[in-house]
Amino acid sequence: MNCIVWNVRGLGNQRAFRSLNRLVVDEDPSLPFLCETKLQARQCMNLKSKLGFEGCYTRDCKGRKGGLMLLWKDTVSMEIMSSSPGHIDVVVSHDQRRWRFTGFYGDSRVDRRKFSWQLLLKLYSIQELSHLPWLVGGDFNEILLDSEKQGGRPRALFHMGDFQSTLNSCGLKDFSCNGEQLTWSNKQGEEDFMQCRLDRFVGSLDWYRLFPEAQVTNLSFYHSDHKAIKMVLGQSWVWVKKAAGRGRKRRFHFEEIWTTDEACRDVVSSAWNEGKIYHGPLGIPNRLKFCATKTDEWGFAKFGNLKKNINKLQKDIELKKTDSSYGSNVAVIQDMEASLESLLNQDEIYWKQRSRMEWLAHGDWNSKVFHLKGSKRERKNKISGLMD
Hints:
Blueprint: E1 2-7, H1 14-27, E2 31-35, H2 41-51, E3 55-59, E4 68-72, E5 77-84, E6 87-94, E7 97-105, H3 113-124, E8 134-139, E9 149-150, H4 157-169, E10 172-174, E11 177-178, E12 184-185, E13 195-196, E14 199-204, H5 205-210, E15 215-218, E16 229-232, H6 263-274, H7 283-303, H8 306-322, H9 330-355, H10 367-381
Helix pairs in contact: 3-4, 6-7, 8-9, 9-10
């Protein structure tokens, strides 16, 4: 089981939902907590279905600010205890273990940060929950140490002291993490560049004892200016599917994804003209076959490594963002992210064609659903045997 916390900075557009869907597909979280959804409950419930989760609890945004969402799978039993614009508090039952989780969002305004710490202290003082191991995760909007900030003016010691004092009073300890430590960036140029560690998991001593193998990893920014943070509670087992051998040659299918490249029309036209060498009664069929072969070869060369290219570009973007010269690479990163959006759109079209789900528009990103439908259709069309 793993938990993810992420300040998504709004989920009301196609790019944001694509990023969230990528996160869900890549990391397969059992319990994601999202801050700043900027959505109402009805919109969140719609996203829950598209992402494939069984449970959802939300706090509506106010205007164009705030909004919280907690999702969970049916393998996890959830009991909602309390919520506010700054938190969702639940009791989790999973794998014969029962513990408490609080998704937390610290106030973004410095002059109101004290109310966030008061909220955390109030949650700690709830007697009927005090016996449970406690994990808190989210965007605290504050740092603990000077080393957790780069660029900008130095953070006032008393602000960091208030945060540390609150954690100590609640018996919560900060988890060290794998990956780049700083989780937020203003994505500005060199002179104005700044990044901090605002997002984290903290836990009680009992929670540490309950999950001694737990590990935290800082993931990617995706579309947000905050990184997603993953907490793996125990060992993760990865099952590797054995690669299948090459079967019979498949019949030709014109891929809709090819039309996203301007060169497609020229490739088809050129191949058709080259096919003029075929004459006689079978001239047209042979010409069509020749045209299909040439187009298929071009399509495979252009789009055959789509998933590999997406993964490589994601890694390259992440390396650029974690580089010390990030501030001077802002324009380059924006171009790379635009290229990634184009590749993700092509991947969506690819799986949509295989699923034959005409009621889903191209802009409605849900490759997970497309994969399932495509695989189901393949199983349905398979001929197991013939009866004489």
